[in-house]
Amino acid sequence: MSEATLKPLRVAVIGGGIAGLCMALALQQRIEEGADIQYTVYEQSRKFGEIGAGVSIGPNSQRVMRSMGLGAVLDAVAAPPGKDKDLWFAYRVGDAGENQEKEFAHVRGTDAACGSVHRADFLDQLINKLPPNVAKFQHRASRYTQHEEGVTIHFEDENLPSAEADVVVCSDGIKSLLRGHMYQKLGLDMESQKARYAEWIAWRGLVPREKYNEIFGEGAVENIMHVGTGRHILTFPVRGGSLINIVAFVRDEEHKKLGNHTSPWSEPRPKAEMMEDFARFNDRCKALLEAIDNPSIWGIFAIPQLTRVTDDRVVLIGDCGHATTPHCGAGAGQGIEDAYFLAHFLAHPSILRASSPSARNAALNRALSIYESDRHPRGAKVQQWSHNAGLLYEFLGPEGNDLGKMKETLEGRMGWIWEFDHEKELRRMMDKIGATA
Question: What is the pLDDT of residues 312-338, one digit of tens each?
């Protein structure tokens, strides 16, 4: 088969959450620039959808989205910048047993405002950018079979016909079946890829801005992290600033909150239980929690740092490859970064202009190998730092309750995440792919 008759690169995107839809739209951008690529998104649900109220989009991921032509998505759903437009969080001691309401840090972004969006609104905007007929719903991928002509994807519902692709991008989240299949197929320790209880729960809820202003005062900072012993509360605006999202974390090392759950879950729970969890916090924090009408409790799970995220022409991205705790507000951003890099890798000339299917397969393997060696470690490092950040907010890290040391650690950690030069890194890795071709 000659270069002129080589078929378009077929990409199967497994999962339609934030990482999966960003992957699809990053590929769409490459197609609009002339890349000969076809893609299909396979989603297990009846429609695209996200659970949870708020998600943080840091300066690094905002820059990547604008490079992907998705700046309008952010502008449509992000809260308008306030007087401190580059503020990520102001840090205050909320635990009345400590130094009550002492503010000790203002952690700021770099050259982009630190954004927070409502997950459902964000996903809706991404969906609106998708071309019609690129998604197949009620298709939960369970395993794959590789062969010379591509990769066959098999679905949990055996009545569904299998699907064919040249490369499979697994973005089906923390509960991914394909991740488990990959580890089983590679003969790796199955326990090393399973989601684990991170030993935190989170109480979640929304309050109107008017109520927030009543508690904290007109013009009060909205992005606040109220820290305390074994628990912390964060607040930030969503829905264009009309609502304030509240997430109140409780450390649960003895698994008293876990019950029989073995994977991420959420459920309504009595407000009285939440108030008891934060009985030590100051009056304003308690008034804020009391203002939540119907609080829900969420079990926080993460996956271990994976040693492998590729198998031949199959690759894991987003939460499928590095699901983390939310304490650095960087989980969604890492999925967005993954999509940006991988879409460029798949459009590399060594892949799209390969002289034969076997040459294309070899080029795909080289590109995905570089993804694993050069891209994945960043997501893994964010996993570790996010866990450590949760401990820091609750005086359980090496900094203890030394506010000066906490401030220093926070600014260094978040700076490393936010100051990432994605364009420089892309050039470096694309050159590396070309050098190995």
Answer: 999 999 999 999 999 999 999 999 999
Q: Is 378 a catalytic residue?
A: no
Interval 8-22: pLDDT, tens: 999 999 999 999 999
Residue 66 in tokens: 């604008």
Residue found under tokens 């993954």: 338
Write out the H or E segment, with its range, that includes residue 236: strand 231-238
Which domains are delineated in the chain? 3-60+124-195+304-391+421-436 (3.50.50.60)
What DSSP assignment string belongs to 166-214? SEEEE---TT-HHHHHHHHHTT--GGGGS-EEEEEEEEEEEEEHHHHHH
What sign for the dihedral angle of Cα 28, 30, 31, 37?
Answer: negative
| DSSP state at residue 240 | G
Token pair listed for 47? 């429609």
Decide if 142 contacts 177 (C-beta within 8 A). yes
Nearest CA-CA partner of 351 in 37, 68, 33: 37
Could you say which DSSP state residue 239 is in? Answer: G
Whole-number Å distance between alpha carbons of 216 and 258: 33
Residue 312 to residues 31, 52, 166, 307, 365, Cα–Cα distance (Å): 24, 34, 10, 15, 6
Q: Which of 204, 366, 378, 413 is catalytic?
A: 204
Alpha-carbon dihedral angle through residues 214, 216, 217, 220, given to the nearest 10 degrees: -130
For the chain, give the number of residues. Answer: 437
Handedness of CA 67, 72, 77, 82 (dihedral sign): positive
What is the radius of gyration, based on Cα positions, of the chain? Answer: 22
Three-state SS at 41:
strand
Report the distance separating Cα 209 and Cα 23, nearest Å.
Answer: 34
* DSSP state string for 330-359: -HHHHHHHHHHHHHHHHT-HHHHT-SSHHH
Instruction: Give the residues of the chain that fall short of pLDDT 70.
Output: 1-5, 50-53, 79-85, 98-100, 109-114, 437
